[in-house]
Amino acid sequence: MTDQVRRGTSRGFSGVVSPWWIAVTALFLVVFFVIPIINNLLNTDQLVTLAKQRPASFYYEKLFTDPYYLGIVADTVTLSVGVTVICIIIGYPVALFLVRHAGRWSGLVIFLLIAPLLTSIIMRTFGWRVLFARRGLLNDFLLWIDAIEKPILFLNGPTSAVIGLVHVLVPFMVLSIASVLRSIDLQLEESARILGASRFKTFLKVTFPLSLDGIGTGFIIVFLLANGSFVTLLLLGGGELKTLPLLIYQQFTISRDFQFAAAMSNVLLAIAVGCLYLQLRLIKRKGVKG
After folding, report:
1. 149 within 8 A of 155, measured Cβ to Cβ
2. Mean pLDDT of 86-108
């Protein structure tokens, strides 16, 4: 242990973070995070003052008391949680394969994971539209094998929107879980096997509990991205699935109710801040354990 500390010190590592890096990080957060949030909060009051209408609190009360808008908030959270859970179900086996079984194919697996992120979101979404269209590839294939008698309407519904979101967000879940799986000491699993535990029980009692930090981090990241998704829901959901980002767009472009749109955007920001707080708590907990 002493030799490791000595080697780390000789390479320039220290237990104290440089004030320069703290200042740069703080400046970045203030410019790109704190100031936009404060500016948006101030704009809500300014818009209300300029319009000489109801106070800003009225719009928040309306958002959380009106059954229609409260249902949209609930649908937004439900959609985000549902997409995140699906990403966990799909992503965990992929992450486990990537870490434990991919071997020399790990590079290819990682490339396939991040490939959707290298494509424009517009092109990727229209690709799904081509696939799910009434005369698209999926319907043509089902008709060709006589599985259906007439084309099925896959587009403009929750199913196509969820598939589109999962397609682009599952890599974040896989990489979050894989990073934690790589840090698990294999000797712990070997010890469980030696003591008589089956492969499944070893996974259930050892591997899975130790990977919960990766699941938690991936959950926060995917939930946050799904919560603010707009283009995918607009193009694949066809407006049938109402969420806060789509409602904000509607308020700005159709209803022209800028005060209400600003209030809804502040709610989205509050959800994002809450997710970042949970992530910070998770990082601190991991730091204490380490």
Report:
1. no
2. 89
